[in-house]
């Protein structure tokens, strides 16, 4: 019989001591003996729940979202408390999460505003599998598959955490071996409650080790793809994404090609206009999806064009990007619905909150183009030629000419000129999939402006400066208070005020 595993929840030490703050609390002790039991444990404790939202505050901070005054305000309702909490992130306020939790209490929207909590809960579940699964009864193949999933998930969660609470790995103005990331915890049992933050470089070192282990184990098993369980293709796609963020173009390209060799680029040009409403991007039948997870709640608060009470919609500037002279971008009507100047996102099934996020094979093609263009920028002409070919192949599956003529290809230009075209395609393709905020960070943290309408007529303009401290999120003070080993981020102090028009 396998020894009894004492589960000491890391989240108690890292975040809150309040049990009812936890969204899922299993028994204090478990005694899994078989790989089947461990598989159930991993599904419950290592995977995000299908209706769980984790980091939706990042969706309010990028440039793909826009404030709208709730139309129902004319009936006397105005902004809801939820809208005003979202405004804190929309206007990049320091210590926004502390304000939300102070107003509502630590049980409210914990995952959406405090991804620290949810990700570390799941990391603990992964650590449990990795430490004890080899002692279980079952085949080596099943054990390898479980460890491969756990390594993948832990890599993904640390990747998310370090890109929310740490400076970008590729920031040219600082050193990832000095910049603070998040604490690295690789054990399920915790003997003390003081965990200092590791550097960004140290966290990425673990991420790389984990994803390479995941690739090795999941490639060995080559399990049939299951949309709600990680298999080998998502592992290669995540590896490609990780290496892209590290400016390791060779490895990013290698893993992207692995996915591209096994999954064709999806084509929107054949989607009939009448099929738009039923063919959502995040749906089980979409062959472009290689892993589904989490909840569509990350997008709640954006107008769905049937509600007059929402305070946010897709950015009108983003929507305008889908217009090109002489061309129809089929994604415009596939991704959005326009009604009464309200631009709603319809990438998800609005009739279900479950599985509203995912990994798409299309990202592999985008990652490959970027890696090749960066190699072209470094002097590799052959990489530039290949990137241009891939870029044009990609655009042929998104655009149709309005007059029936052949769509003109993008012509060869400098690396920077092609990168500008590529970055726009990436922004359009991956909008509202949790990547835009991270892309802005690794593309140099540019200056952003946005407008808040407090009363339906007045406009307030808020500015996020280039390399602004709020490109890195504050660690909640409840975390730093309970764990004195965690050094807080040095955000701006006080309230961010609107600028003069």
How would you characterize this protein structure?
With 501 residues, this protein is mainly α. It folds into two domains: 1-64 and 90-223 and 454-501, Alpha Horseshoe (Serine Threonine Protein Phosphatase 5, Tetratricopeptide repeat), CATH 1.25.40.890; 225-434, Serine Threonine Protein Phosphatase 5, Tetratricopeptide repeat (Alpha Horseshoe), CATH 1.25.40. It has 17 helices and 13 strands. It has helices at 10-14, 35-45, 81-90, 96-104, 110-113, 115-132, 140-165, 200-221, 232-245, 249-260, 316-320, 331-335, 362-377, 381-396, 415-430, 436-442, 477-482, and strands at residues 5-6, 29-30, 65-67, 289-295, 312-314, 323-324, 327-329, 336-339, 342-345, 354-360, 399-401, 448-452, 460-464. The strands form six sheets. It has a three-stranded antiparallel beta sheet. A two-stranded antiparallel sheet has the order 1-2. A hairpin with a 2-residue loop joins strand 8 (336-339) and strand 9 (342-345). Helix 9 (232-245) runs antiparallel to helix 10. Mean pLDDT is 84; it is low at 1-29.
Which terms summarize this structure?
40% helix, Serine Threonine Protein Phosphatase 5, Tetratricopeptide repeat, 501 residues, 10% strand, 17 helices, single chain, three-stranded antiparallel β-sheet, mainly alpha, disordered N terminus, two-stranded antiparallel sheet
């Amino acid at each position: 019989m396998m020894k009894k595993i004492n589960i000491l929840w890391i989240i108690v030490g890292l975040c809150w001591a309040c049990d009812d703050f936890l969204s899922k609390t299993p028994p204090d002790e478990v005694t899994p003996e078989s790989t089947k039991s461990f598989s159930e444990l991993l599904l419950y404790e290592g995977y995000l729940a299908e209706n769980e939202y984790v980091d939706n505050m990042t969706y309010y901070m990028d440039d793909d979202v826009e404030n709208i005054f709730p139309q129902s305000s004319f009936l006397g309702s105005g902004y809801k408390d939820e809208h005003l909490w979202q405004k804190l992130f929309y206007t990049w306020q320091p210590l926004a999460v502390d304000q939300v939790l102070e107003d509502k209490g630590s049980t409210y929207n914990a995952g959406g505003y405090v991804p620290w909590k949810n990700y570390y809960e799941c990391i603990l579940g992964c650590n449990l599998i990795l430490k004890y699964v080899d002692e279980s009864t079952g085949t080596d193949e099943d054990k390898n598959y479980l460890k491969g999933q756990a390594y993948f998930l832990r890599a993904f969660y640390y990747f998310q955490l370090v890109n929310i609470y740490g400076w970008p790995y590729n920031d040219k103005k600082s050193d990832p071996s000095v910049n603070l990331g998040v604490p690295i915890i690789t054990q399920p049992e915790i003997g003390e409650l003081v965990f200092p933050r590791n550097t960004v470089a140290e966290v990425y070192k673990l991420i790389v080790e984990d994803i390479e282990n995941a690739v090795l184990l999941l490639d060995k098993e080559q399990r049939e793809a299951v949309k709600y369980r990680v298999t080998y293709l998502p592992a290669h796609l995540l590896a490609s994404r990780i290496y892209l963020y590290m400016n390791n173009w060779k490895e990013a390209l290698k893993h992207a090609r692995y996915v591209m060799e096994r999954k064709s680029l999806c084509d929107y040009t054949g989607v009939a206009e009448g099929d738009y409403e039923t063919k959502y991007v995040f749906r089980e039948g979409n062959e472009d999806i290689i892993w589904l997870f989490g909840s569509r709640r990350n997008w709640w608060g954006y107008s769905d064009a049937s509600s007059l009470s929402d305070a946010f919609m897709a950015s009108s500037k983003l929507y305008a990007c889908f217009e090109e002279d002489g061309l129809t971008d089929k994604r415009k009507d596939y991704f959005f619905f326009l009604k009464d100047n309200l631009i709603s996102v319809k990438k998800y099934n609005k009739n279900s909150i479950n599985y509203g996020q995912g990994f798409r094979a299309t990202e592999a093609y985008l990652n490959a183009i970027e890696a090749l263009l960066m190699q072209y920028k470094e002097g590799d002409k052959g990489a530039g030629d290949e990137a241009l070919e891939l870029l044009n192949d990609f655009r042929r599956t998104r655009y149709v000419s309005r007059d029936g003529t052949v769509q003109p290809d993008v012509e060869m230009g400098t690396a920077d000129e092609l990168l500008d075209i590529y970055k726009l395609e990436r922004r359009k393709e991956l909008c509202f999939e949790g990547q835009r905020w991270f892309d802005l960070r690794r593309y140099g943290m540019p200056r952003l402006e946005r407008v808040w309408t407090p009363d339906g007529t007045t406009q307030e303009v808020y500015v996020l400066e280039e390399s602004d401290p709020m490109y890195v999120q504050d660690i909640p003070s409840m975390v730093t208070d309970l764990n004195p080993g965690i050094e807080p981020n040095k955000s701006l102090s006080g309230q961010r005020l609107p600028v003069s028009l």
